Amino acid sequence: MARLFHPRSVPSTRMGTRGQPEESRAAILQAAAKEFAEHGIAGARTDAIAREARVNKALLYYYFKDKETLYGAVLDEAFSGLKNTVFRVLDSNLPPREKMMAYVGAYFDFIASNQIYPRLMQREMMRAREGQSQQIDQVIKTYIQPIFGRVSELMRKGIADGEFRPVNPAHFVPSMVAMIVFYFSSAPMMQKIVGFNPLTAERIAERRAAVLDFISAALFRPERHATPRKEHAHERA
To answer: What is the pTM of this model?
Structure first.
């Protein structure tokens, strides 16, 4: 899982030297993620990022030549963490049903542990829609398309085996993602609607169970119908 968004405190001492490259870079990325999620790239201030990371501004520009480069690095860190997390499941030898549930659970757990991610992605989608994003094509090619391709492949196998209903991955995969991401991005609004904090550990666990239940009900065929199609063809022969 990407270390960028792990909840942790920023070190109490300044790291404004080049003698701690890994620690300094990680602190800058963590601080930048918070700033970009809160204000977007246009409103984000490098002074605020350097101050939050406890580095001097010169060191920030030593690692990242400008704000756009830093923003791209934040997106790479976030999406590479997501891709690595779900690919560990998608590369496994689990049967289709178990693999799909493991994938959804891994995706959910990543977002639950990195709740800044939905806000970053929403802002990037808005930039892309307005034709202002320099990063979206690379993000889609490197991270989103490979994940979508692997999940679609899993769905096609489950359908062919008679395990899944014949649904279109182009509609079903985004719906699965939306069920997860929207819960966290809409949490402030939902708190006003439902009257409780949806981001407590207990509520997040409830949401995880609800997501898994909903997706399994929407996708899985009843067990008695889960016979591979080729066996049906054999019976008819």
So the answer is: 0.81
